[in-house]
């Protein structure tokens, strides 16, 4: 046994250094250094040497996969069931996004350069220096994340000196997260026992795939898009990047934010927004512009969102798009106005939940040539908002009081970033979970105010608080101003989760934790 150079294995490490530098992958220092150490040991026996290389190759593939931001294998297998539903064209569109031509060219250049210069450059030395540099950098990063002082009142010191003394305590990200959930668990909206003011309908339009980042990417201004709305929240935390959990979180808005696992367990009765309204005489209506089969969406909002009424029948409505699995997506305008004509008269008042997938990745416009998602998104977005504005006009004509809320589920990840290609929402990154929410008060006695923009980061609980405050203060009877409703709305730190993936801000920077592992900074920039 003796030590030798890394030979062609240097290429593996050099490519990984380059990917790590550009933030395309993470780099677990210890495992990679251990692999390099194994490779520099040279065995005398040729067969043992061969086995070493085979084992190293397997480890290298696993390590590269682990260092990438791709979802863990077990989750990928679970997702494979969904991939079977994808249409072939959509599958090809996705492959085109993963296989990046620039990346292939870069790889080709690195290989040729290595081949050319390996005669006179000792690449093993370069690799060792690179590893040492990453190891050193990792040390300084881990110090960085732990250096987040939390100001606490130390009561024992306070009594001695008879004045409150503020000390700093170092809090780990895990402690921060558990503190956050602890604080959130104390929040519950209190609805009035009965309602004596002017009756008003509550209508929530839950839109799949529309984040502030998507609108910025297309050059659409949030305040222009919501120009007819009274209140705009441009920094709403959707707290997740998938539809089912987003809808459950919205439907449980009357309690504080919980972790992902709790969404799929029963919650206390008072957490369900629509159940709270039902107790006041509201009749719940579920309306969707799709059949709700994907990811068992329909079952989820029923079982975990407390919405047990039968969805409004849309079978005879015009089809506007076909989903990524070729299932029909019905015209938003036709479905919303159809509901208004057929069902909205019967409930006094109505609490209506609407879910639309018109902006989902991979949709195709009906009767149009195939377009990729980025090409068709602006068209689909314009159609959706023209339908919503038409619906508002009809609500105004009807003359009943309505509190209308537009709440996107999560973003479309139209632009993508270093970690996740466009359309991938596995990690709930800030760009995907920061969505624009707006509220409009419609009614004969509601005065027209200028648009109020609240820049604070808020989340679902604030929406429940707003409904409860509206019930308490009779805004529709002209007894309270909309601006008064917005006083003391609970702000929400941006914590977001998917199954086994958590994003949280530490020192004003987003960090993520995958599968309960270490926290690492989410690479920013393109
Ligand atoms: Zn969605």
TrEMBL record:
InterPro entries: Alkaline_phosphatase_core_sf, BcsG. It comes from the Bacteria. GO terms for molecular function: transferase activity. The keyword Protein biosynthesis does not apply. It holds the Pfam family CBP_BcsG. Its EC number is 2.7.8.-. Keywords: Membrane, Transferase, Transmembrane, Transmembrane helix. The keyword Glycosyltransferase does not apply. The chain crosses the membrane at residues 20-41, 53-70, 90-113, 120-138. It is an enzyme of class 2 (transferase). NCBIfam families: cellulose_yhjU (TIGR03368). This is Cellulose biosynthesis protein BcsG. It comes from Pseudoalteromonas fuliginea.
């Amino acid at each position: 046994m003796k030590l030798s150079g890394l030979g062609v294995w240097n290429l593996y490490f050099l490519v990984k250094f380059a990917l790590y530098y550009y933030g395309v992958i993470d780099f677990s220092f210890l495992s990679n250094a251990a692999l390099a150490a194994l490779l520099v040991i040279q065995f005398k026996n040729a067969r043992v040497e061969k086995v070493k290389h085979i084992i190293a190759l397997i480890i290298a593939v696993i390590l590269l996969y682990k260092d990438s931001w791709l979802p863990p294998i077990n989750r990928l297998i679970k997702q494979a069931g969904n991939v079977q539903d994808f249409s072939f064209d959509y599958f090809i569109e996705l492959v085109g996004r993963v296989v990046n031509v620039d990346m292939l060219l870069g790889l080709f250049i690195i290989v040729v350069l290595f081949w050319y210069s390996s005669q006179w450059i000792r690449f093993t030395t370069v690799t060792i220096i690179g590893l040492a540099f990453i190891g050193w950098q990792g040390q300084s990063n881990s110090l960085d994340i732990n250096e987040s002082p939390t100001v606490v009142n130390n009561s024992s010191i306070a009594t001695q000196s008879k004045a409150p003394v503020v000390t700093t305590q170092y809090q780990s990200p895990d402690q921060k997260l558990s503190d956050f959930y602890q604080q959130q668990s104390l929040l519950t909206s209190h609805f009035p026992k009965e309602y004596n003011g002017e009756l008003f309908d509550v209508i929530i339009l839950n839109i799949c795939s529309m984040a502030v980042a998507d609108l910025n990417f297309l050059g659409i201004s949030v305040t222009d898009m919501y120009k007819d709305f009274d209140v705009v929240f441009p920094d709403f935390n959707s707290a997740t990047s998938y539809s089912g959990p987003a809808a459950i979180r919205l439907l449980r808005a009357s309690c504080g934010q919980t972790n992902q696992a709790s969404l799929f367990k029963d919650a206390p009765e008072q957490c369900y927004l629509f159940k709270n309204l039902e107790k006041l005489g509201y009749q719940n209506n579920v309306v969707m512009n799709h059949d709700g089969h994907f990811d068992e969406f329909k079952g989820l909002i029923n079982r975990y969102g407390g919405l047990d009424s039968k969805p409004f029948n849309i079978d005879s409505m015009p089809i506007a798009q076909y989903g990524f699995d070729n299932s029909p997506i019905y015209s938003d305008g036709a479905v919303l106005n159809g509901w208004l004509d057929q069902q909205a008269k019967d409930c006094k008042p109505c609490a209506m939940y609407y879910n639309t997938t018109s902006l989902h990745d991979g949709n195709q416009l009906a009767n149009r040539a195939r377009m990729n998602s980025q090409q068709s998104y602006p068209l689909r977005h314009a159609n959706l908002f023209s339908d919503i504005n038409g619906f508002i006009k009809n609500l105004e004509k009807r003359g009943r009081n309505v509190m209308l809320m537009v709440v996107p589920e999560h973003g479309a990840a139209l632009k993508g970033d270093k970690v996740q290609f466009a359309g991938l929402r596995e990690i709930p990154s800030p760009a995907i979970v920061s969505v624009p929410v707006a509220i409009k008060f419609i009614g004969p006695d509601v005065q027209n105010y200028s648009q109020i923009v609240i820049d604070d980061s808020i989340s679902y609980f604030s929406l429940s608080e707003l409904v409860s405050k509206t019930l308490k203060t009779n805004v529709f009877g002209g007894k309270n101003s909309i601006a008064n409703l917005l006083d003391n709305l609970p702000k929400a730190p941006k914590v977001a989760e998917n199954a086994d993936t958590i994003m949280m801000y530490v020192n004003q920077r987003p960090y993520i934790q995958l599968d309960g592992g270490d926290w690492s900074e989410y690479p920013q920039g393109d």
